Amino acid sequence: MAKTSAGLLMYRERNGQMEVLLVHLGGPFWKNNDREAWFVPKGEINPGEDLLDAAKREFQEETGLVPRGDFLSLGSLKHKSGKTVYAWAFAGDCDPKSLKSNTFEMEWPPKSGRLATFTEIDRAGFFTLEAARDKIHPAEFEFLSRLKKISPR
Q1: CA distance linking residue 65 with residue 124, whole number of Å
Q2: Residue 32: which of 122, 129, 131 has the closest Cα?
């Protein structure tokens, strides 16, 4: 069965341009990737959980920030894996270097029998929509296009 995730895309205006907060996944698989390796902060929905509530919870878990404000629906999209992702945008600001992510454990190296702990998100950054085009995973680029169309700026 395909998974469902929900997330939030924080945006701000700087020097007359919109910037969005994207996160880079932690762990060994994304460590050396930068181009197309950044995402909207998101995560899986718990059974019976409201989609927007899940998006807020996941944003807080992955960044350490409590999201506040008006949330603009960006709709949903599907990853090639079949996962459906729902997203909302909200205006906000932060210092990306101060963000704190939760952690997860996995066997690393594979088949070693040893568990290693990694942060879910190893870094975050604000990017203009143009710069974000090269950073964001292609499956989530459509969220940026939708934000540009509906943003109140």
Answers
A1: 12
A2: 122
Q: Are 91 and 11 in contact (CB under 8 A)?
A: yes
Question: How many beta carbons lie within 10 A of that of residue 86, not counting itself?
Answer: 20
Model pLDDT for residues 1-40, shown as the tens digit of each residue = 679 999 999 999 999 999 999 999 988 888 888 888 899 9
pLDDT score at 11: 97
What DSSP designation does 136 have? B
Q: What is the DSSP string of 8-57?
A: EEEEEEETTEEEEEEEEE-STTTTT--TT-EE-SEEEPPTT--HHHHHHH
- Residue 80 zone, left/alpha/beta (φ > 0; ψ -120 to 50; rest): alpha
Question: Which H or E element spans position 77?
Answer: strand 72-78
Q: Work out the angle at residue 41's Cα, subtended by the Cα atoms of residues 38 and 43, and round it to the nearest 5 degrees.
A: 115
